[in-house]
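Structure (tokenized):
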């Protein structure tokens, strides 16, 4: 062990580090002033490393939170776009033959053929938007099947290990 000469004092040394005592002060308090350099090396090798690990965990948590917020914003944007697409599709489904609409040449009346084409396109647009919304929320049939399959695997694993009653 690298720090055998101070192994018997490790608890008291770490207690001193927690109290923000210097290695020299700790060595003097423990009656081993000649070991202050060893205590200093121990602090650098072990104690400071604990602080670095704690700091890196905090940084990772902050980065994770930032990524999470960015993804949340993207999902919200996607859901807003889907809502706009659905609203536009439902507007097109309201068209009836004879309804007037504006063109660059002036006003025109919708023909039955145009209304049929608009309704077909609007129904397809609405269906795709609703499907995308369900996929984002995890409520689509594929996600439900996958979830059920995972639950089935977990149940089988619990039964195989004997932890399921």
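Design, position by position:
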């Amino acid at each position: 062990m690298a720090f055998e000469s101070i192994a018997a004092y490790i608890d008291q040394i770490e207690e001193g580090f927690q109290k923000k005592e210097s290695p020299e002060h700790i060595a003097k308090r423990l009656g081993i002033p000649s070991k202050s350099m060893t205590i200093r090396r121990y602090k650098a090798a072990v104690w400071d490393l604990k602080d670095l690990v704690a700091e890196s965990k905090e940084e990772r948590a902050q980065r994770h939170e930032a990524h999470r917020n960015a993804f949340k914003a993207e999902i919200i944007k996607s859901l807003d776009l889907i809502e706009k697409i659905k609203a536009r599709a439902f507007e097109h489904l309201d068209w009836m033959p004879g309804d007037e609409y504006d063109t660059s040449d002036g006003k025109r009346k919708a023909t039955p053929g145009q209304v049929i084409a608009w309704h077909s396109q609007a129904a397809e647009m609405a269906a795709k938007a609703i499907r995308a919304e369900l996929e984002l929320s995890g409520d689509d049939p594929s996600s439900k099947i996958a979830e059920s399959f995972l639950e089935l695997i977990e149940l089988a694993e619990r039964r195989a290990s004997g932890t399921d009653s």
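Reviewer-requested clarification: The mean pLDDT is 86. The CA atoms of residues 66 and 72 lie 10 Å apart.
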